[in-house]
Amino acid sequence: MLTPRQEEILQFLLRYQAQHHCAPTLAEIQAHFGFKSRSSVQEQLTVIEREGYIQRIPNATRAIKLLKEPTSDPEYRLPLLGKVAAGKPVELQYADETVCVPADLYKPNRYALIVKGDSMIEAGILDGDLVIIDPVDTVENGALAIVSVNDAGATIKYFYRKGKEIWLKPANKRHQTQILTAPAQVRVQGVFAGLIRRKIKSSR
Fold it and tell me: Does the annotation count 88 as an active-site position?
């Protein structure tokens, strides 16, 4: 059975083959996934080969032959940690619930949040959407970040540091930018990595 990372590599091999009509080199796989060494690539390919998906050809430049495709789409799941405000901050609550996400949004350390509110609608983030978050504690100006203020809850806004001020900017003309100065405690909890639009069932 393949791990999620090995599934990602196999999907990359399939896409590359379809686009270029040949296999990627080890260097191209290493660069795409950010592996530190070729040996790490070799280790992952050894498992994929053992599972019967590929065959590696000795002494060849593009030495990977695809034998079969996965019989079903792999399932990638991330922890759902509660709600994040697109408006007034709400508290993040850790839970055992998980959500299924596409392979290109999956990373082991990521998590998902449910958007509550309409302050980011002009950025395409609507009430009820799932946002996928990379946990970080620092972001660049203009990043779409998950931020808590005075540990009172979390909100998703564009983050700007201007001198001694921190600006949390919405994407809705009806909402005002929040400008914070000391002694306000502003803590970055993550940065936006992707979005999933959930289908809301009608009550009619």
Answer: no
